[in-house]
Design goal:
The protein is α/β, with parallel strands linked by helices. The protein has two domains: 86 residues, no CATH class; 323 residues, TIM Barrel (Alpha-Beta Barrel). Helix content is 44%, strand content 13%. The longest helix is centred in the middle third of the chain and has 25 residues. The chain is globular and about 65 Å long. The N and C termini lie far apart (44 Å). It binds L-rhamnitol and zinc ion (ZN). The site of zinc ion has 5 residues, from loops.
Length: 423
C-alpha cells in the first residue's frame, strides 16, 4: 500500500473507532479548520524588529538565547520565511505584528511618530496571503524603556511618550482591521517592574491605570479593533514587582470591557491557564491567549503538545468558546531552525485542539453528573491512546500540507536553499 493510501485507510479505521465512542470526527475537523491561530512575527528574527535602534536591547525579561544561523535580517526575508511556514500549516492563520516591524525605510522613525503608512506594506502583503493581522505596541527595546518603567513611569515625559506610542499603535491596528475586514486585536504588554522591593507600588499602578485610561479614550468600531491587556508575574530584572500583574489587568479588563491576554508563561508554575478560561468567560465576552512553553520560568520555548497546552485547548472546547477565545502564539527560540520552530509550535496547538474536539464529551459529562468518577477518569485515559494521529495525518493530507514527518524534510530543504545563504 502506498503512503497516501495507508493514511486514508488508517483514517477510516480511526473514524470508526471514534464513532463507536459517540464522537463525530468530521464535525471535529470542520471546527478545527475554522480556528485561526495568530502567528507571532517575532520568532523569525529573535524579537529584533527592523528599526534603526539597537535590536539587542530588550529588557523586561525578554531574553532570546541561541544563535542558530538563518534569522531574518529584513522584512523581505521575514515575509519569505512566514510564507514558507504558512505553506506547511493546515487550517487558518493570522499574523501578529509588533510595532517595531514597520517599514521605516532608511529613516529613523521614533515610536511616538509611527503611522498606518508604515504598515501599509504589511496590510497589502497580508491581503495577498489571505491573512488578517493583529498588532502590538512595542514598549521595550528602547532607551526610554531602560529605566524599568514605561506607561507607569513617574517621569511624565517618559510616560507621555509611551502613551502617545500606544495611542498610535491602536490607530494603526484599527486601520488594519478596517482594511482587512476582520477585527485586529491590539495587545498591550509592558515590561514595567522593579528588581528590588519597591515602596511605591501604589503610585506605579495608579500611573498605569491613568495611562490606560488615556490610551483608551478614543473608541474605534469594534469590528476594526479590540484591545487586550497582558499581565505578567515577573521578568528578569523585574523580580520583585511587575506593575501590570494579573490582578491589576483582570480588574481593569473587567471594569472596562477589554480583553485580558493570558500568556501561560506568566503565572506561577503550578497555576494553570486552562483553569482560568471558564472562570474569566463568566464575566468577559472574549479573551486572548499567548500560547508558549515556560521551562522553569517564562522562557518562551517552542510550544509542544504537552499537558498544559492540552488542558487549555480542552477548556476552550469544553466551554464551547472557540469563538470567544483568540489564540496567539508567543515563543522565541534562537537555538533551533526558526522556521521549524513555528511549524512545531503551531501544529502542537492545532493538535491540542483536535485532541480536545475528539473528546467524547457527552459521555464524560454524564459520568460526571452521575458521580461515576472512575469511569470518567478511565475514559479520559483511554482517549490518550485512540488513533488521534491518524485523524491528524489525514487532515494534513486533505489540507495539502506536509503529512507527519514530511515537514522535517521540507524545513531542511528550506534551510539549505534559503537560510544557509544568510551569512
Ligand atoms: C513578554 C510578553 C509579550 C512579548 C511579546 C514580544 O513577556 O509575553 O507578549 O513576548 O510582546
Ligand atoms: Zn506574551
Amino acid at each position: 500500500m502506498n503512503k497516501t493510501n495507508s493514511i486514508r485507510e488508517a483514517f477510516k479505521l480511526a473514524r470508526a473507532q471514534y464513532q463507536h465512542l459517540g464522537v463525530d470526527v468530521d464535525l471535529a475537523l470542520d471546527k478545527l479548520k475554522n480556528v485561526e491561530i495568530s502567528l507571532h512575527c517575532w520568532q523569525t528574527d529573535d524579537v529584533g524588529g527592523f528599526e534603526a535602534a539597537d535590536p539587542a536591547l530588550k529588557g523586561g525579561g525578554i531574553a532570546v538565547t541561541g544563535n542558530y544561523p538563518g534569522k531574518a535580517r529584513n522584512i523581505a526575508e521575514m515575509r519569505q520565511d512566514l510564507e514558507e511556514v504558512i505553506s506547511m500549516l493546515p487550517g487558518r492563520q493570522r499574523l501578529n505584528l509588533h510595532a517595531s516591524y514597520g517599514e521605516f525605510g532608511k529613516k529613523f522613525v521614533e515610536r511616538d511618530e509611527i503611522e498606518p503608512a508604515h504598515f501599509q506594506g504589511w496590510i497589502d502583503w497580508a491581503r495577498e496571503m489571505g491573512l488578517a493581522l493583529d498588532f502590538n505596541c512595542t514598549c521595550f527595546s528602547h532607551p526610554k524603556a531602560d529605566g524599568g518603567f514605561t506607561l507607569s513611569s513617574k517621569d511624565e515625559e517618559i510616560r507621555q511618550f509611551w502613551v502617545e506610542h500606544t495611542k498610535r499603535t491602536r490607530a494603526i491596528a484599527a486601520e488594519m482591521g478596517r482594511q482587512q475586514g476582520s477585527c485586529c486585536i491590539h495587545n498591550i504588554w509592558i515590561p514595567d517592574g522593579s528588581k528590588d522591593i519597591p515602596v511605591d507600588r501604589f503610585a506605579h499602578r495608579a500611573l498605569l491605570k491613568r495611562s490606560l485610561d488615556e490610551i483608551f479614550q478614543l473608541d474605534y468600531p469594534r469590528d476594526h479593533l479590540k484591545d487586550s491587556i497582558e499581565s505578567k508575574l515577573f521578568g528578569i530584572g523585574a523580580e520583585s514587582m511587575t506593575v501590570g500583574s494579573h490582578d491589576f489587568y483582570l480588574a481593569y479588563a473587567m471594569s472596562t470591557g477589554k480583553l485580558i491576554c493570558l500568556d501561560n508563561g506568566h503565572f506561577h508554575p503550578t497555576e494553570q491557564v486552562g483553569d482560568k478560561i471558564s472562570a474569566i468567560l463568566q464575566f468577559l465576552d472574549e479573551l486572548m491567549l499567548h500560547m508558549t512553553r515556560p521551562v522553569r520560568w517564562d522562557s518562551d520555548h517552542v510550544v509542544t503538545l504537552n499537558e498544559e497546552i492540552q488542558f487549555i485547548a480542552q477548556e476552550i472546547v469544553r466551554s464551547n468558546a472557540l469563538e470567544r477565545v483568540h489564540i496567539g502564539l508567543d515563543f522565541f527560540d534562537a537555538s533551533i531552525n526558526r522556521i521549524g520552530a513555528y511549524v512545531i509550535g503551531t501544529r502542537a496547538v492545532q493538535q491540542a485542539l483536535l485532541f480536545a474536539l475528539l473528546e467524547p464529551i457527552e459521555t464524560l459529562r454524564t459520568y460526571e453528573e452521575k458521580g461515576k468518577l472512575f469511569e470518567r477518569l478511565a475514559l479520559m485515559e483511554l482517549m490518550k491512546s485512540k488513533p488521534f494521529g491518524a485523524v491528524w495525518d489525514h487532515y494534513c493530507l486533505l489540507e495539502g500540507v506536509p503529512v507527519g514527518e514530511e515537514y522535517i524534510i521540507r524545513v531542511q530543504q528550506y534551510e539549505k536553499r534559503v537560510l544557509s545563504n544568510r551569512i
